[in-house]
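Minutes, structural biology subgroup

Action item carried over from last meeting: produce the C-alpha cell record for Low-density lipoprotein receptor-related protein 1 (Pelecanus crispus). EB confirmed the sequence was re-checked against the source entry. Recorded below for completeness.
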Amino acid sequence: MTNTTMCGDEAQCIQSRSTTYCTCRRGFQKVPDKNSCQDVNECLRFGTCSQLCNNTKGSHVCSCAKNFMKTDNMCKAEGSEHQILYIADDNKIRSMYPFNPNSAYEPAFQGDENVRIDAMDIYVKGNKIYWTNWHTGRISYRELPASSAASTASNRNRRQIDGGVTHLNISGLKMPRGIAIDWVAGNIYWTDSGRDVIEVAQMKGENRKTLISGMIDEPHAIVVDPLRGTMYWSDWGNHPKIETAAMDGTLRETLVQDNIQWPTG
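Output recorded by EB:
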C-alpha cells in the first residue's frame, strides 16, 4: 500500500524518523472523533469573497453579480466612471464623480435655514432625490439636476438649486429619520423616531401604511433590498439593535443586539 492510498485523497502522509501519520490537506479539516478529513466550506466564512462564493472540493471560487466585474479579487460596478456620488451636508446636497480625480464638487440642492437633511436616497428610474427633514417633519423630493463638467451647466445648476422642491403630503410626521427607495415597486420607506414607527407609501405619498410599531424605540437608518423582499433598520433607543423584516412588515427578526450602543447608520 502506498502512502497516498493509506491517507486518502483528502490527506497527505507525513514521515519522520520515528513515525508516519496522515494530516488533512489544505482546504480540508479533520472529522471529530474520526480518522478522516472533510472539505472546508470557505463560503460559510463571511468576507471570503467580495460578492458570490461557490464552494468546491478543497477550495472555492469567487465570482461577481450581474453588472459587476472582477478587479483585484474585488467586484467593481461596470461603468463606474459615469457613477455619481450624492452627499447630504446639513441643509444642502452636493454631487461628484467619485472615480474621476478631476470631478467638481457641485451643488445639487441648497435649502434654507429650516432644512435639516437627515437621510436621503435616489430614485434613479424617476430621476428624483428624496430626503427627510427632521427639523420640519417633512419628506421632500426634487428632480435630479443635470450634471456637467461645463461651466455653463454648473452655473445653471447653481441658479436652480433652490427651486423645484416638492413636499410630500404626509400628515402627522414627527421626526422622519431614515429613508429608502424601493426602485422595483416604486415605493418609499421611512423611519419616524418621533412616533416610533416604520412606514411605507407610494412615491407621491399615497396609500401610506404603517409596517412596524411596538418594540421599537428610536428607529433611525433604513435600507431595503427589493430583489430579496427584505428591509433592515437600526434602532438606537434604550435597547439598541439592528433588525430586519420582509418589506410588508412580516417576518421581523433581530440581527444584532449585543455589544451595540448607538447604531445610526
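Discussion: The first helix runs from residue 3 to 7.
Next step: EB to file the record with the rest of the batch.
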